[in-house]
Amino acid sequence: MKTKFLCGKAVIIVLLRQVLLVLLLSSQPAYCQSFLTDGLVAYFPFDGGFNDATGHGNDGINFGGTIFGTDRLGNTNSAASFNGTTTYVRINNNRFMDGTSNLTISVWYRFVGSQSGQLVGLGDSRLGFDPVSTRIGSGGFEDFGVTDCVLNARTGLSGHREIYTNSVWRQLVLVHSQIGTSNSASVVYLQGSPIATNQVSQPIFLRFDRNMQAQIGAMDSPFFGNNQHWLGDIDEVRFYNRAFSDSEVQQLFAFEAPVSVAPASASVNYGSPVTFTAT
């Protein structure tokens, strides 16, 4: 709380961000706080380093001189900043998440300009053989989905220009799941809300047919020489080996999103009692 005395009155300015976060978490059921780690395979907070914060050893390796920028909360050196030509982070696992049937990938991203690029790329850019491609641009999804490289089958998504906003932080979540024994679906969420779904009538696993790199901010492209580099910032990259529910995606967004609340101010007579109520 900050108090300023002005003309015999106290102008009380209350910064509510931390208060609201505590209230949000305390009002949720018990699983709300544990779901963040349930099934978490790798987590890259990019808070000055490239290591996997889970301790599972899927650490990132910096290529091309990736630097750290300012994150969505205004913290410096707390997000990976990519130059769109040479920089990327490679995950130290050539069959990362191979064989996964249900998965969730969450990424915060910020475009700088309109160049398209990969948020997360698992593959080698052979046509139809990228286990995960998340290339987006000003027109929306360009090459986006989960592929079973053994069956050469995928759940692909296209369109949705609303995912592009220049110089604004957004959260994108990809959830892939098996439906019964004979169907699969990929659902994409923007800012906690579902915007695109593709369901196919066959079980599709995230499956490799050979060793391939996993990269953040690019896609390994030994065949075409275009690594689809990201121009802008990426942060809070999470990989789960389970499919999030709608409510879990919403809770993740609420947990990670900046709390945008205008500071409350009021003028009262000096010495008068003041009561604060948070709802």
Structural class, by secondary structure, is: mainly beta
Number of helices: 3
The shape is globular
What fraction of residues sit in β-strands?
35-45%
Helix/strand order: EEHHEEEEEEEEEEEEEEEHE
Low-confidence stretches: 1-32
Core attributes:
18 strands, 7-stranded antiparallel β-sheet, 8-stranded antiparallel β-sheet, mainly beta, 279 residues, 9% helix, disordered N terminus
What does this structure look like?
This protein is mainly β and 279 residues long. It contains 3 helices and 18 strands. Strands 3, 5, 6, 8, 13, 14, 15 and 17 form an 8-stranded antiparallel sheet that branches. Strands 4-7-16-9-10-11-12 form a 7-stranded antiparallel sheet, with no helix packed on it.
Task: Give the topology.
Blueprint: E1 2-6, E2 9-14, H1 17-26, H2 31-34, E3 40-44, E4 60-63, E5 67-69, E6 79-83, E7 88-91, E8 103-111, E9 117-123, E10 132-137, E11 140-148, E12 153-159, E13 170-179, E14 183-190, E15 193-200, E16 213-216, E17 231-240, H3 246-256, E18 264-269
Antiparallel strand pairs: 1-2, 2-18, 3-17, 4-7, 5-6, 6-17, 7-16, 8-13, 8-17, 9-10, 9-16, 10-11, 11-12, 13-14, 14-15
Quick description:
The protein is mainly β and 279 residues long.
